[in-house]
Amino acid sequence: MWPGLRLFRSSYSSLAARGLVYEKHGEPAQVLQLKNVDVAHPADYEVQVKMLAAPINPSDINMVQGTYAFLPPLPAVGGNEGVGVVVDVGRHVTSVRRGDWVVPVEAGLGTWRTEAVFSEASLMRVPSDIPLVGAATVSVNPCTAYRLLSDYETLRPGDSVIQNASNSGVGQAVIQIAASLGITTINIVRDREELPSLVRRLQDLGADHVITEDQLRKPEMKDLFKKCPRPRLAFNCVGGKNTTEMLRHLDYGGSMVTYGGMAKQPVTIPVSALIFKNVKLCGFWITQWKKERAHTDREEITKMIRDLCDLIRRGRLVPPPSTQRPLEDFSRALQDSQTPFLSRKQILIM
After folding, report:
1. Which residues belong to any copy of the Enoyl reductase (ER) domain (predicted)?
2. Section 43-69 average pLDDT
3. Topology of domain 141-287, per CATH?
4. What is the CATH number of domain 18-137+319-349?
């Protein structure tokens, strides 16, 4: 359920409830406004949540722009991810209670607000003994990384995977989850001024090999595979020539999974890769994956969130470097979230 937004007018509303509302699609800086929003008493199967923190992800920006694959009805509150604390529940709610921390398992709920009422089915409880930023960022990028590593090839300790956009939120989660499983990662990044510090940061997370896009194309790449096996899996979030080069190094019968297209260029696959290497090409979208299981196989979502929170608790999965800003400072957060090479997740604190 994606509830429509009512602007502030109800006598039952919380006077403190505010949200980043957009009434038409466009550039976020131009169409988002901080407004009062209604928070009615929760009905039988609803939960009243005080939001604590919510990140700004690329998909959030695309949704406001109107270019995302799923768009909530307008007017809407921005944000698809975050963590909140339950302040009230409807009389038939059984999965959460007052004081629990919860995260959304559905897209389009609108998490860039101080308080809201959501359906019980759209939320999942998370432990409150993990860091706030870890909880606020667990339900999109780490979930994507978890599924990429779990659903396409049977990986064992010592196997390897290769990925581009390795310093993205998903890329960093792949590095850490793979390291916890004993899986080697080959990580491709764009060249930049601060490359040495980026390489060190990814290595500190558990990256085994970090290479630039230029190095990916060099003949010396064959020396890398004297140290580790050719990857069974490739994760693509870029597209264009970068992806074609990455595919060349995939093992026979391996899979390449595309979950993004940062370069806004098509994925070009050589015929020889299909005929002589028998590679498999797949696509993945965490929003669709959750939607298909939210009401039929919720235990699979529960296990995934539980496993990820356990890694967070043990310090094996840390969120990307972030800047935390109050909701009122959303304009600066939006600007920084769209600044190339900044590499800091913007978190709105409520």
Report:
1. 29-350
2. 96
3. Rossmann fold (3.40.50)
4. 3.90.180.10
